[in-house]
């Protein structure tokens, strides 16, 4: 079988939407982890813009000094006649939101694209200053729905094990060979992923933050005890909470809280964590064994489905509140989507023969809720 992902360009799902919203005196903000394809995407977008484009990198010291000046004279002098501006890694520019506001409000017909690899910095800086002046997008590792034009459902299922183990970063998807995929993932983790984390305030013990990420990797989709993590890592509870928050804001993990409406026995104080990408998770714990030799296939499967569904919801604008559901007597549902006044329970099972019936407490308490089991036979319709 020819691997078409190695010979054809992967079209990102949000590309056309961004083009439509690249409007005069508006800022397009694209968030996402490093090496997820933001720069590649904006290069492609730039080719579709007929006017000259001024490219800037927020990690360049000269760019930082100029774009943080808050001086209309300096800003306009630097831009000159350009009316199309692209700023990569914009989170590195101090007060970038205020400076972009000055440009947007002062220069007619200017269009700006800003990318950032840290949701913490960039969201804080562009949020309030650019209210009503921006369109915001999140770029994920390659989504399965972005591969639909390139492979048949049969081909997708043939590659499922590879994606559970090595994940979906663009370089990984388009690279052949297990060792090369491992090398790429290692470089992402060591050279890029934690770069943003260590730049943020509050990381006084980087080694402990890495150990925390590894501990979460071993408990993907499980109930996490922060007290246990605190004791295991020998750091106080407040530091555990701070580091977990920063791991989320740098696109390493995402947390989910418990759902509760009617039962006293429903758990709500604990949280579950998932990784943005299976390959990053496996690289952190250096575990690339085939599924036949693994004991964590269920965890990989749950993380994969959770993240791919998250990509679909975001890209296709399926607005939902997201939870898990669990009672003290251990009845549980992996994913609960609350939207349009209705509950949708989703049980994620690797084996097609498991989890066919919903928990009795769920059906008794929420008789109008929907329930579906997602397994390796029917998963594609759920995530594409």
TrEMBL record:
Taxon lineage: Bacteria, Candidatus Gottesmaniibacteriota
Pfam families: AAA_14 (PF13173), DUF4143 (PF13635)
Protein name: AAA+ ATPase domain-containing protein
InterPro entries: AAA+_ATPase, AAA_14, DUF4143, P-loop_NTPase
Stretches assigned to the AAA+ ATPase domain: 24-141
């Amino acid at each position: 079988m020819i691997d078409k992902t190695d010979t054809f360009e992967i079209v990102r799902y949000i590309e056309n939407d961004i083009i439509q919203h690249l409007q005069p005196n508006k800022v397009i903000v694209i968030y996402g982890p490093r090496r997820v394809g933001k720069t590649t995407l904006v290069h492609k977008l730039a080719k579709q813009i007929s006017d000259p484009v001024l490219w800037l990198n927020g990690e360049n010291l000269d760019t930082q000094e100029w774009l943080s000046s808050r001086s209309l004279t300096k800003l306009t002098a630097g831009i000159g006649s350009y009316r199309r501006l692209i700023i990569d890694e914009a989170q590195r520019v101090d007060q970038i939101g205020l400076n972009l506001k000055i440009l947007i409000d002062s220069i007619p017909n200017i269009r700006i694209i800003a990318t950032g690899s840290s949701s913490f910095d960039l969201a804080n800086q562009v949020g309030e200053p650019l209210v009503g002046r921006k369109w915001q997008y999140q770029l994920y590792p390659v989504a399965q729905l972005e591969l639909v034009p390139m492979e048949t459902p049969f081909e997708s299922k043939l590659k499922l094990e590879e994606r559970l183990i090595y994940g979906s970063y663009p370089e990984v998807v388009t690279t052949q060979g297990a060792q090369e995929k491992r090398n790429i993932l290692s470089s992402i983790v060591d050279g890029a992923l934690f770069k943003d984390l260590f730049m943020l305030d509050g990381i006084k013990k980087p080694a402990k933050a890495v150990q925390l990420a590894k501990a979460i990797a071993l408990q993907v989709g499980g109930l996490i005890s922060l007290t246990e993590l605190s004791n295991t890592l020998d750091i106080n509870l407040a530091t555990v909470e701070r580091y977990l928050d920063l791991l989320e804001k740098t696109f390493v993990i995402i947390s989910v809280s418990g759902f509760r409406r009617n039962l006293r026995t429903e758990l709500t104080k604990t949280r579950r964590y998932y990784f943005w990408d299976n390959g990053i998770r496996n690289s952190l714990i250096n575990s690339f064994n085939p599924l036949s030799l693994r004991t964590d296939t269920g965890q990989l499967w749950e993380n994969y489905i959770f993240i791919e569904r998250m990509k679909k919801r975001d890209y296709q604008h399926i607005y939902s509140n997201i939870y898990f559901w669990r009672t003290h007597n251990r009845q549980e549902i992996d994913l609960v989507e609350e939207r349009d006044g209705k509950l949708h329970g989703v049980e994620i099972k690797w084996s097609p023969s498991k989890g066919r019936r919903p928990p009795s407490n769920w059906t008794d308490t929420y008789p109008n809720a929907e329930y579906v089991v997602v397994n390796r036979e029917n998963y594609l319709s759920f995530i594409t």
